[in-house]
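User: Fold this, then the next.

Assistant: Folding the first:
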Amino acid sequence: MTTIIVGAGAGGLACAIRLKQNHPNCDVTILERMPVPGKKILATGNGRCNLSNINAKHSNDVLDFFSTLGLITRTDNEGRIYPYSNQASTVLDLLLNACSKLGVKIITECMVTKIDGNLCLTTDKGIFNADAVVIATGGKAQKALGSDGSGYTLLKSLGHTITDLSPALVQLTSSSKYTHLLKGKRVKCNAAIYLDNKKMISEYGEVLFTDYGLSGIVIMNLSNTVGKNFSASKPKKCHAVLDLIPDMSEEQIIKYLNHFHSLQGILGKDLSDIIEKQAEGDTVKMSKFAKNWKLIITGTKGYDFAQITGGGAKNDEFNGYESRIIKNLYVCGEVLDMQFPCGGYNLNFAWYSAISAADQITNSKGI
């Protein structure tokens, strides 16, 4: 049996290894358009590779897979799982070593331009024929690391539906002068996204003010809603609304202000001065601003800065990870319309969907 995997990223490498673990004699080839495989893996988790999360669905399956490669991990206080070495290169080296030992062929600088219904792949390095094909190309986020959106084009040409795409897990831009003035400052707060003054999503966490707008994990987790809005033909007015003092009510803040006359003891001088200036020194207004600080959002930092892509191949067109349209065509990872929060959840899905696709191929072929 011959399986061709398009993309030598997290999903592609894991899928290839699992296939060879299941059936050592099968022929597995990965076609990768970049000069080297796994480039994006090295950038994950700020170079430490946040490969999963103990709270992620199927994380045990992922860790079991990596244990077969000899990877030892450690978990931080928020459930994020890293290699014990705290080096993403450890994960990539183990994956590539396993591919080499198991006989997986990796062809780099190979662009797949077409796949037909008979699983014949046209590339700039010739024609490849397969019994099974796995699309593991990733999405459109961070093209320089390998994700150029080509997987969507290939799937669409084979009859699959691609939902609207947008940057996700990405920083937000703002026209407010205040984010620039507060550049580098952080605040733990409740953050919400409003579209046309309607609350869409909210989350508690740390917000980082920047010269272009807002960053931080909570902002990244809210960004999918913003990305989808600004990718629409008629975007709605978008605001981030921050409850800067979630532990106190407006009445408690007013009482505090009546005693201390500023919010410096809670928010620090810079942010307190901005709130006071906006409210023109009015105590009631200061309290309202502190609980509902509204900032205009003008968009996201785009695909070059996004960790993942929002949208993707429509999930109900697949039985597990096998296409319902083209027999023996499989997908895994970010190319599907599956998005998760920061913290290792998306990479966990890439690994899990990859090993699951490999198991489906094995079972379907009776090997």
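Now the next one, as you asked:
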Amino acid sequence: MKKRLIKKRFVIAVIAVMMLALSACSKDDVKDVTEAVGEKENPVAEEVVNLVMNEIPAIAADRNSSIKVFNDYFKEGKNADSEEWLPKLKDAKETFSKYITKLDAIGTTTDEGAELMQHYRNSAYLQLAAMDDIVNGIENYDTSLFDSASTRLSDSKAEMGEYERKLAEIAKANNINLSGSFIYVDYNTATDAE
């Protein structure tokens, strides 16, 4: 009975986990970010371009692989055996922790870069906390942790929305041309159904 209840709660969490993957991936899919500042140096533009084009994408593999494991577990129609998946989910959570360590190692020299990265890091920490809630919920048959995970994922999306807004603001102020798959969503009004 407890396993059936947990599986039903997981269905509710599926949408939130899928949204985690979508919101996290949009930032690293920026295909072309160019600096248009003329001949004068602009440390803000240089730092932001480096963060978006080099630093963040260079460490994305651990994040992407972790999120894939959680998404595979929650894949619609999949009859996931919690006991079988638990070691995989724990490994994925550990891989995501390594990603956070790498993310924390990215340095900034400007206030704008620091603020931008703070939003990005906040989002990642909330994603890790959601993963932790899911793993602990499975281990302890505690469905309240799935509600907590869902809340954390919503908060993570809000932080990523702030990252995107800040990136657009910095780009405009520093003549950085953003193009490609940059996605702007008002996460404050988004719901799981969207």
